[in-house]
Prior knowledge:
The complex is a heterodimer. In chain A, 74% of the residues lie in helices and 3% in strands. In chain A, strands 1-2 form a two-stranded antiparallel ribbon. Chain A has a single domain, classed as MetI-like fold, CATH 1.10.3720. Chain A has helices spanning 2-12, 15-22, 24-49, 54-69, 72-95, 98-103, 120-149, 152-160, 165-195, 207-215, 231-260, and strands at residues 218-220, 224-227. In chain A, a hairpin with a 3-residue loop joins strand 1 (218-220) and strand 2 (224-227). Chain B has a domain at 20-179: MetI-like (MetI-like fold), CATH 1.10.3720. Chain B has 11 helices and no strands. The radius of gyration of chain B is 21 Å and the shape is flat. The two termini of chain B are 35 Å apart. The mean pLDDT of chain B is 91.
Amino acid sequence: xxxxxxxxxxxxxxxxxxxxxxxxxxxxxxxxxxxxxxxxxxxxxxxxxxxxxxxxxxxxxxxxxxxxxxxxxxxxxxxxxxxxxxxxxxxxxxxxxxxxxxxxxxxxxxxxxxxxxxxxxxxxxxxxxxxxxxxxxxxxxxxxxxxxxxxxxxxxxxxxxxxxxxxxxxxxxxxxxxxxxxxxxxxxxxxxxxxxxxxxxxxxxxxxxxxxxxxxxxxxxxxxxxxxxxxxxxxxxxxxxxxxxxxxxxxxxxxxxxxxxxxxxxxxxx
Amino acid sequence: xxxxxxxxxxxxxxxxxxxxxxxxxxxxxxxxxxxxxxxxxxxxxxxxxxxxxxxxxxxxxxxxxxxxxxxxxxxxxxxxxxxxxxxxxxxxxxxxxxxxxxxxxxxxxxxxxxxxxxxxxxxxxxxxxxxxxxxxxxxxxxxxxxxxxxxxxxxxxxxxxxxxxxxxxxxxxxxxxxxxxxxxxxxxxxxxxxxxxxxxxxxxxxxxxxxxxxxxxxxxxxxxxxxxxxxxxxxxxxxxxxxx
Lengths: 270, 244
């Protein structure tokens, strides 16, 4: 009995497991940063969509339509690669000489000096931005709908007080919009949480990658076979982890919606 | 321009794999979802709890993890179960594992849609059916189901499109067998050959967009047919609410 507990304690606190626990930070950072950026892009997209200037309106509409019409994982992979190449191309126009371009044998980058090496931090930032871009398109629609749900009388009252168009937008329209947007934004947040499982596709050693490494058949010369293929157990843990996070977020959003809905007609609350 | 056309030609066989995954999992998921939705609405505590739990678990966790979980579970049962039965090559094949997990996943999402529609079926219609002396199964077939599917169809259309989008991650989680590459893997392989991200990924995206539009068109026609008794049939709109 005691041996059992000692074994499990030792097993679950070995170095690889500690690294696994630490790697949860990538998932959490990507989710929080991606969520914040999604709201920013969503607000931008929604204001573009309601703009009176046609080209801006077109940009907003195309952004939300195209990004939602393509699988999230495709965009998630494409954006960091495209961004990296774009930066390398700009750098290449500055640093490459004719000789260095001739010396380069592979197709990309144009010369060796223009190569930009991306580490975990860079990939994590890029992944968060692409999460923000993808789910910002969903948030655009949510916020656009919510802006139209704000009672017209409120805006007219603000204008009657002599507020400028910008003041009406920032002090009344966007502040009152949140109540109507929260149910939709909670949906978008759930999507972002689930999309954070894709981080390992960008070479980030996240929880999924570590679950795969830890679960693989483990053989130590000193002990013999520690365990055979346990990957499904580790994935089961992640499966439960994500369900718990979803459940917690649901509870949190319920509380936020209750608080944001104070003093506002009950039909606004989802 | 030539490179673009080459890409289009190279990805034409690849889109068939995505279409296969979607086509193989949608009908099964549809039937399973009906039972799950009825289970969630059931007054039997056990059935109700089980269906609710299933739907919550599969909607609350990423499809990517579900793929890894079921595939590694199947792998660990290989020596004891599949190998002695002589079906290990079949069970572990992505063309079987992929649709299996997609079915489990889409059934949960579709069941949630059907459950919402089930609760929106007019009470009066069900009461009228009961007053006519219809048995529960008659009520379901003649009154509840026709109402339900009409209410659920626009949301179900979005679910089908998103299931098709979800087929993009099948081969990112499962091993590629032989030359059986879907759109994502083809785009990735082409990218690793000449690093032209701005060509290969948008071409794959074009394929996804094109198929999505075709799905919307076909499902829109079905919707019009379902609603033909109404003077002004509604239109199926691209309004995704959930993704995996």
